[in-house]
Amino acid sequence: MLEDKLLIYKFNRGDSNALRRIYEKYRDDLLKVATALLNDRNSVEDLLHDVFVTFAQGMGNFRLRGSLKGYLSICIANRARDKNRAAQRKRTVALDDAKPIRSDTSMPDHLAERNELTEQLDYAMTQLPYVQREIIILHLQSRAGFAQIAKSKGVSTNTIRSRYRYGLNKLRSILDGQL
Amino acid sequence: MKMRYQKNLEHSIEKSYLENIEVSADAEMDERILGDALAAMEESKKTNPAMAGPNIGKIVMKSSITKLAAAAVIIIAAGIFITVMQKAATPAYALDQTLEAMNNVRTLHLFGRSWDNLEFEMWVKLNPETGMPDYCCMYRPQTKYLAVSTPKLSYQYNESANRVLVSSGKLFNINVAPSRLFEDLLRSSQMENSNIDIKIHHESDPQTGKSLIVVLYESPDETWKGFVDPETKLPLRLYCLRKNNRLGSIFKDIDQIEYDLDLPEKIFEFEIPEGAEVVNMDERNKALSDPRYGISTEGLTEQQAAEEIVTQYWNAIINMDLAAARKLYPSLDMNKAPDSVPVEHVENGKIYIEPGCGIGKVIPCIIRYEDGSLKEWKLVIKKRNIDGLPSCVIAGFYNSPVEIK
Lengths: 179, 405
Prior knowledge:
The structure holds two protein chains of two kinds.
Chain A: H1 2-12, H2 16-37, H3 44-57, H4 68-87, H5 109-127, H6 130-140, H7 146-153, H8 157-175
Chain B: H1 3-17, H2 27-47, E1 61-64, H3 70-87, H4 92-103, E2 107-114, E3 119-126, E4 133-140, E5 145-149, E6 153-158, E7 163-168, H5 178-190, E8 197-204, E9 211-218, E10 222-228, E11 235-243, E12 251-259, E13 277-280, H6 281-286, E14 295-296, H7 302-318, H8 322-328, E15 342-348, E16 361-369, E17 374-386, E18 389-397, E19 402-404
């Protein structure tokens, strides 16, 4: 929105408060994206660090296309993919290793159900190919438009839409129609 | 995949997965990331020629002024300075060059505070032919309020309420008539037996140490202290030291103004946020011409008519008769609970023209609340003549109420 345009304007003119505000505004959202996409969750902070330092280096020439949150989230996603590749390992939490669902009798049923659903979704997301998981996270968490994602990846918007749809279909099959 | 299932799945991912991702942020992490990012930014400044230094043409100005749109404020400032220079018989160059400098301005960028101490930032694009604001956007970060005014459509967005008010044309409090404003100021200063006092001297700018022209403008209603850059002849800073009744006031302080900056990209474009409530103000405004609303003003003076309608309105509000209140003020949001309960309509002020308020004249009203506090509200009264019958209606409120100590 307008605040982001103003922040970018000031940022490009060297206003450190603008950079600080951008960081504070989107830190938590970006941490979520990083946590959802990185196989090694210990690297989340480093990922955010790298993205912001690179972003700061672009001061003076940064041009915003689409939403700022979407842009920064795409940067996170791109670096997460690189880190995952570099680490050559995947987060493979099997259902057996998943945290046990609390079964306290004092817990309201709807909370217990929600935890179960969260665990199922958490597992299902790890089973998705990265390219699909990435688009689902960017679209639903960061509100990045398909066009903005497509442009950043140099592919067509339809390709991104298809990947998104395939991702949801795969999630559905993993969850076996439980939703 | 069926659409409904997809929606359910998306909703579940958002609510049961994404919202439950725990993130841990702490001050140490912030310090490390921000510290390195700021250092990288400083490094970029050294290699970026655009950051080499201030553009001489970009003049920062600080001031104190009224509650008009910021563009109007600048025009007022110019008017005051022009008046000042003439009355004080200072060299004509001050007048002419200030005028000329203002005429050449194409964009304005302002920071400041209003009388209710809310900060604002504003961008204005002036029409090169008329010098009038064509496009304007104002943002108040504390209330998350954004106003974008364009010749075709204007938007007022309340981020906290996620509500957008959309209206045709420019926002009335931005669409000022500078020539009229200028003429009024000039005329008042040139009146014989004028009790306006103008003094000019030089002062050192505490920020830069530079010697500036200082103009002190004093009338029975207000006192201004203005600073002019002796080189550019542009108004550099204005302080409103006193303003009785705050007539014509929107902004109290303008802490910074820059001229002729490149506008931020798409600064005057507004996209309606997802899920926002959209209110068509044109539809609401139609009610202002609807004879079912308002009161007859036959046989009443302008002051009497204004007092009558606002007295009826406040009595209806105090008695919680919202239907009656809405018949006087058709845009009244009947679903909005008041922040505090009004208990007494204490008095009305004199109706007056608020520069920049094109809908109608404004009448101040003082209202007492149940906690004993007093607030001054300004109600905009629209006069009408429908089928030969004079009437009036309350068009709205002019800015936020001001608490009276």
